[in-house]
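Ticket 4471: requesting a sanity check on a complex prediction with flavin-adenine dinucleotide. Repro inputs:
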Amino acid sequence: MATHEIRDLSIIGAGPAGLFALFYAGMRGATAQILDALPQPGGQLAALYPEKLIFDVAGYPRVLAKDLVQSLTQQAGQFGQPIHLGQRVVGLEEADGVFTLVTETDRFPSRAVIIAAGIGAFSPRRLPQACAEPWYGKGIHDVVLEPKQFAGQHVTIIGGGDSAFDWAHQLEGVSRSITLVHRSDRFRAHQATVDAVMASAAAGRSAVHTFHELADVIAEDGRIAAIELKDIKAKTTKRIPCDVVLPMLGFVSDMGALLTWGLQVEKDEIHVTQTMETGRPGIWACGDVNTYPGKLKLIATGFAEACVAVNQAVHWVYPDKKVNPGHSSNLAVFGQKDD
Ligand SMILES: Cc1cc2nc3c(=O)[nH]c(=O)nc-3n(C[C@H](O)[C@H](O)[C@H](O)COP(=O)(O)OP(=O)(O)OC[C@H]3O[C@@H](n4cnc5c(N)ncnc54)[C@H](O)[C@@H]3O)c2cc1C
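Returned structure tokens:
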């Protein structure tokens, strides 16, 4: 198991709160690192809604979620602090004033910990059909990072929620064909998007199959060539051309080990004080993972909480450093006049 060099702060989670915490730690002159279970930074923004517009982040009249992640990652990266992706934290050890976060493969020691774990380490819900499993990553994709990769292809989307309808709508005109498949005729998506997709299907520009599910994957030359759909009411099957299947079945999230660390946890949320303290000295929590009276689960709130948590943690590690950071517009670390 690889053991990394000790840092002042370890931050669990590369969502907006964790990314801003990493930036802030660098600004305060602390060494820091992020650990995230996902293969990409951005938390819910990257995993759940990269193509959605966000309107309530200060300073941005509107911003695509994936573009906000890019800006946050760029801002966080300017001090050269590492973001370790694909590292799910499964354990915490504490000895001689050092916390060690343990993942399946590595150990990350630090002097303080900031938990910015959002709704937990989450992963897309997988298709239950065994025939789908071998094709994950080879024609079945549960995360869409770049819509253009599906240009000119027959795309089948499985699901009845916002992501399924958003992608059905957005891939129209990009893909060669769009087929939306759902097990019922009840949808959990924004009505305007449902209406748009249904209008497109009525006009023959796409297809919607309700009360259907995946029955089989037909391969040719090592790639998906078609799929079979089963009508779950009539018990009949039909074959449609298909290059790509996008299961949009939601996510399963798991707080896992974090709940066993002696923190005050209720309904998967960590109770914190107004200084983001968790009750366990040396550990702070910010963003969606924490709760307190008046808590708002918003990106903007997470940013402010990250500032509070980092300033407290920096003061804990270096008592001579003040809690109050001063103004970034004056700081020498940015080449400004430090006064
Ligand atoms: C569809 C949708 C639309 C939204 N729209 C808006 C909006 O318009 N405006 C707004 O302000 N908010 C919006 N939100 C809410 C916003 O996305 C969240 O408030 C925000 O993502 C919280 O950020 P975070 O950094 O606290 O947590 P998250 O974004 O959840 O990130 C947490 C990260 O921690 C990682 N993690 C968790 N546990 C572990 C572990 N054990 N080991 C390693 N890594 C771990 C996860 O993998 C994840 O990457 C929306 C949410 C959704 C789902």
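Notes from triage: The chain is about 20% helix and 30% strand. Leaving this open until the requester confirms.
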